[in-house]
Amino acid sequence: MLCGKCSHPNPDENKFCGNCGTSLPPVEVISLKDLVDAGILRAGDELSISVKGKDVAATLLADGKLKYQEQTYDAPLACAAALRGQVCDSWYCWEAVDHITGRKYPISHFRGALRRKRGEVPPSPR
Ligand SMILES: [Zn+2]
């Protein structure tokens, strides 16, 4: 999430802003597996990430892990870090295709979809 004070993007897992140290509101961590279990993303989906200007694709597995070539990664963050050689806010760097709209979104979009599905946040106005 973005820091409310300095707008620095932080992984949702962070309790404090990596830039200015402000404490961030707690977020229930939704994993890729939660998204697969909810049917929002599916095993076999391709997730893509831009590495040095090129799109690289990894495959989503049924247990929420990501497979890239012969390597399996527990979390999108680990996979992004391995591919890019640096840590990024992986939930905004990875993109996947929405099965409902057929459009590509950063995977944070699907976390929002799950929260709406659970009734934790109201649907966005259209
Ligand atoms: Zn900050």
Structure, described:
- The protein has two domains: 1-30, no CATH class; 32-117.
- It is 23% helix and 20% strand.
- It contains four helices and six strands, in the order αββββααββα.
- It has helices at residues 32-37, 76-84, 90-93, 108-117; strands at 46-51, 54-60, 66-68, 71-73, 95-97, 104-106.
- Strand 5 and strand 6 (104-106) form a beta hairpin.
- Residues 3, 5-6, 8, 17, 19-20, 22 line the site of zinc ion.
Note poorly predicted spans. none
Quickly count the domains: 2
Query: What ions, cofactors and ligands are bound?
Result: zinc ion
Q: Span from first to last CA?
A: 23 Å
- Overall shape: it is globular
Major pleated sheet: 4 strands, antiparallel
Mean pLDDT: 90
- List the helices and strands in order: HEEEEHHEEH
The proportion of residues in beta strands is: 15-25%
Task: Tell me briefly what this model is.
The protein is an alpha+beta fold and 126 residues long. 23% of the residues lie in helices and 20% in strands.
Keywords for this structure?
2 domains; alpha+beta; 126 residues; 23% helix
Q: Topology of this protein?
A:
Blueprint: H1 32-37, E1 46-51, E2 54-60, E3 66-68, E4 71-73, H2 76-84, H3 90-93, E5 95-97, E6 104-106, H4 108-117
Antiparallel strand pairs: 1-2, 2-3, 3-4, 5-6
Zinc ion binds at residues 3, 5-6, 8, 17, 19-20, 22.
